[in-house]
Amino acid sequence: MSTRAAPRSDRALPTQGDGSSNYTITDMQIQKFGRAGECTWQARYSYDFAKVGVPALTAGLVYLRGDNIDTVGANGRENGSGRSEWERDFIVGYVVPDGPLKNLGFMWKNAAWRNDIPGQRDQDENRLILSYSIPLL
Fold this sequence. Notes:
Strand order of the largest sheet: 1-2-3-4-5
Strand content: over 45%
Order of helices and strands: EEEEE
Mean pLDDT: 83
């Protein structure tokens, strides 16, 4: 009777899924950019329109790109590496500066996520956020 060991890879197979939740700088509106093997870079730009005479208006743009993603198929075997994903988030916000609606805020967040990961589909998302700040002091 002989036993045969399964082939061994020098590299552990990547895990799939989001796993536990923790905040990282790559945790965006749609994706977290924390997949197995993933290397991510990002660019951010924000602008306060007070500089041009609209003090309550702000805008921001974030772009992230993750490359080198390892993926696992339904059979539990690695089915590819070198996959990629990107996300673009655009945010516009306005807070009423005075009058009866003072401190009422409006924010529109738009995000687009694209990828070449098997079994994942591209996503687009819009959010409208209303807020109100209550001065306590």
